[in-house]
Design brief:
This protein is α+β, with helices and mostly antiparallel strands. It has nine helices and 17 strands.
Length: 338
């Protein structure tokens, strides 16, 4: 049925209940406090309650995972590096030949409006995650997308609970047998929702150690990235070493890490390295939008460096906090029990 639709589920909770005719989300506040009004969302040119976000089961984004997506976050209600995120989004749309879509000025205005609408409902000191996605639209009878792109934007509080403890204790990493897709499949710069290999890799990693994240190797066995995060190592006397940027997702956060390292006088370079180099590193760091930097303390069950978050992590995280005007780790601790 052409009009059959599926809901885009909230990534934290599906609990909803009515308050004054509006469905507020209980995830937005601490236990025992008054629920906040349901966030507003944007879909296909219309502002709607977030619970009404839907996508057709015949949309290529649902059927084929052909959904270009950007995850953003705010600091004190200001979207971090929106221009760079839109630049990456635009490149992905070009690769997939998805269009026409709103231009960058229009998308910028929509993102700012959704933040202006939803951020004031948060508790003081909290921040928003913002998801922007675009699909090619419905699949035609011939099995190809009809190129009537669907644009959606929605928000949720930054999920601090997922990573706050990692700032203090670190993240365990495991190298599973699942490999990163080859560049022959699609360009590594393509950021889409087709990520079954990430899902399988994390399942395999967590069978080895609960809570571990998977590290993706390429077909030659070189470290490329973690699932949904870029990766870098630090060695005393050498500085930061990252996989070549043309072989991994061009992360906004890893670029910020390069800039912070340069400002701090920490050398960095790009090089293909085997897993043994990361195991022997003094520190290993993950970078992604919500947590910014995550220190990694175990590699395949063995400690990295001292087995605790290191001085370079602390130095770079402090520099990031100073850049955005927020103590990022303190904010995560404050809202970790949301």
């Amino acid at each position: 049925m052409a009009n059959t639709r599926v809901a885009i589920q909230d990534e934290i909770s599906e609990d909803r209940f009515l308050l004054n005719g509006i469905a507020p989300s209980s995830i937005l506040c601490a236990e025992g406090t008054t629920p906040l009004p349901e966030p507003i969302a944007y879909l296909g040119g219309t502002w709607i309650p977030q619970s009404e976000l839907t996508i057709s089961v015949e949309d290529a984004g649902f059927m084929l995972g052909t959904t270009v997506a950007e995850q953003l976050r705010t600091f004190s209600g200001k979207v971090f590096r929106l221009e760079q995120h839109l630049e990456r989004l635009r490149r992905c749309l070009e690769i997939l030949e998805i269009g026409p879509t709103p231009d960058d000025d229009q998308l910028t205005a929509i993102v700012h409006e959704i933040v202006d609408r939803n951020f004031p409902a948060l508790p003081p000191g909290d921040d928003l995650g913002v998801t922007l996605f675009i699909t090619p639209g419905p699949i035609s009878p011939a099995g190809t997308a009809q190129q009537t792109p669907l644009v959606g934007i929605h928000t949720k509080p930054v999920p601090f609970k997922q990573f706050a403890a990692q700032y203090e204790h670190g993240q365990a990493l495991v190298v599973p047998e699942i490999r990163q897709t080859g560049v022959e499949c699609w360009p590594r710069e393509l950021k889409v929702r087709s990520r079954a290999h990430y899902y399988l890799a994390d399942l395999a990693a967590q069978r080895v150690e609960p809570g571990a994240r998977a590290v993706m190797l390429d077909q030659a066995g070189y470290v490329m990235e973690a699932t949904t995060a870029n990766i870098a190592l630090y060695r005393e006397g050498e500085g930061l070493i990252m996989p070549p940027r043309e072989l991994v997702l061009p992360g906004i956060s890893i670029q910020t890490l390069r800039e912070l390292a340069e400002a701090e006088g920490i050398p960095y370079r790009e090089e293909n390295l085997l897993p043994a180099a990361y195991q022997a590193a003094d520190e290993v760091l993950l970078t992604s939008t919500s947590p910014c930097i995550i220190p990694c303390t175990k590699w395949d069950g063995q400690p990295i460096g001292t087995g605790h978050p290191g001085l370079i992590f602390d130095r770079l995280m402090t520099a990031w906090s100073e850049r955005v005007g927020i103590d990022i780790r303190a904010q995560a601790r404050q809202f970790a029990q949301r």
